[in-house]
């Protein structure tokens, strides 16, 4: 099984309702790949989850993956909360429906079927790869904002 390290981050700007995501994929051979994208009508949490999803779905082979995120919600969601959400019919401890359930379910599939994932939390901007993922997420968001401006000008 291949070993891969992934750093991810999300970005969101409420003023434009645009978000972006970024991922740095580091396989054992050291051939680094960078991914980014974005969309309108999203949230920072959706972008954080999307960053991990896009990176995992990008992998061609089943892999052992070390995911590094600066989002404690992602780490806790996948390591502690998800099993309870599933048992409780996708509601949290307050009886509310889980936000972004569609993405959490896709992420669960990637972790249960496609890959073996180990979750790690890193302090924001604590490593060069975390900083790069952050820049990729902001670039993805800015590309979306630029397309929005072009559409408004027409």
Q: Can you summarize this structure?
A:
The protein is α/β, with parallel strands linked by helices and 154 residues long. It has one domain: 2-Layer Sandwich (Nucleotidyltransferase, domain 5).
State the end-to-end CA separation: 51 Å
**Class inferred from helices and paired strands:** alpha/beta
Number of strands: 5
CATH topology: Nucleotidyltransferase, domain 5
Which second-level CATH architecture applies? 2-Layer Sandwich
In CATH, what is the class? Alpha Beta
The strand line-up of the biggest sheet is 3-2-1-4-5
Rounded mean pLDDT is 94
Please describe the biggest sheet, giving its number of strands, its sense, and whether it closes into a barrel: 5 strands, mixed
Q: What share of the residues does DSSP label as strand, in percent?
A: 25-35%
Gross morphology is globular
Number of domains: 1
* Low-pLDDT stretches: none
Measured on Cα atoms, how large is the radius of gyration? Answer: 16 Å
Secondary-structure element pattern, one letter each:
EEEHEHHEH
Q: Total helix count? A: 4
Would you identify the CATH H-level superfamily? Ribonuclease H-like superfamily/Ribonuclease H
Helix content: 40-55%
